[in-house]
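2024-03-11 09:14:02 DEBUG pipeline.ingest accepted 1 chain
2024-03-11 09:14:02 DEBUG pipeline.ingest length=510
2024-03-11 09:14:03 DEBUG pipeline.predict start
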Amino acid sequence: MASILDVRRWPDVRETFSWDALWPLFDGDRARLNLAHECVDRHAGNGVALRLASADGRFLEHSFAELTAWSSRFANLLESDGIGAGERVAIMLEPSLAFYGALFGAVKRGAVAVPLFTLFGPDGVALRVDDCRPRLLVVERDAERWQAALPAVRVVALDARFAARLHEQSPRYTPRTAADDPAVFQYTSGTTRALPEAVRHTHRAVVTLMMAALYGVGLERGDRYFCPSSPAWGHGLWHGTIAPLALGIPVGALAGRFDPARFSGALDAFAITNVAAAPTVYRMARGAGWGPKRGRIAKCSFTGEPMDAATREFLTETLGVAPCSMYGSTEVGVILVDYPGFEGYTVRPGALGSAAPGREVAVVDEAGAPVATGTVGEIAVRRRDAWFAVKDRGWMDADGYVHHAGRSDDVIISAGWTMSAVEIEQVLLRHPDVRDAAVIAVTDASRGQIPKAFVVAARAGAAFEREIQEWVKTRLSLHEYPRAVQVVDALPRTPAGKVDRRALRAREAS
């Protein structure tokens, strides 16, 4: 029987896909499975595992054999320190051999790995430490400072003493975990929760992840893959790290703050053929003069937010392939994809994609009933014989492509008119002087709400603001335009790079 990896035509995927067909990709089964073994140990003879663009400008490679040994030593170190199954190990390191080694070493041990964003301050770390209560926190440096700020957890840094202790351990470790044992706690980067809350993943999550890996990112043997998203967040952790390694494909990652020059340099240095990033990354790279060689990057995908038309057109023209959307949520996983690299599938510009294999997707009304083609409602996925709304509004066209109409809390009702913040933003981003834009609803005495636009631009002043309003009026609608415009130096963003509209609303409220 042919492997699911060999099915590369979209019509064939629709006819033959089954969740059961994902299990033969792994050594483990429904009873015994270890995520670290599947991502690291079984590929120990496969050559390069990590391609890293370091913060100091170097381009580094590490093998599967190195990663296997490092992670096994770390698992043995955890065991010698009495850290047992199910106990949490927090890891606050930039993408490096140490980060991936600690991540998979904790998972090998049967402990729960908790990646943390390196740009968190003490309060941000404390909130997450208080929530997951780890036995250990691994940092790059300044262990004493972090220990003083977090007395309830033992903090270790990557210093000489740690290196010596690690070197003393055996480079071999045999995992002993069940498929349904906890493996990873992942904190979301969204803005819908007042306090951080970890999404809990078991070892078997690596199996269901393959649907998104194959059809959302388009991973296949021979890909030279790169994902600049931080592995502290969902996209960088699952689609940027675990998905490629589980298929024996090297990780490509960017350490430190995002820099367009290092991003484009890494794509060239590593001869990348498949890249996955947030739309913001492509937009910033384009603004910095990125000019990729046409024909080398065969697959380009994005997630996290809709892509503006100008960036989409730039990528299509310069790469020679259309950027492919992948859409879902941390809670339900990926539900819409664009099948990068699959013969017979046509990417529809502006759409979020069509239903992923094994998913039933609809647009529903407030009562949870599917609505007619072209009607705006809540995007929902079928789960346990019921429609589960994913908190985004959208509409489905006659061919089954789903189009975004904004977050449920981004709908603006002004003088009885329902407006989409996303639609207004898309038009604003087409203005030649607008580098970035976000739209929110603000209170208005006569209309209830009005759209207010925050734009990043080199120009400012009342005349420019009127020009912006006319630009939207003449391209979108005479009633659907920002009745208030504010030019700002930058938009607030979540750590994963999404526009932080909650911060904008709070700014307005104050």
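2024-03-11 09:14:41 DEBUG pipeline.report The longest helix spans residues 64-80.
2024-03-11 09:14:41 DEBUG pipeline.predict end
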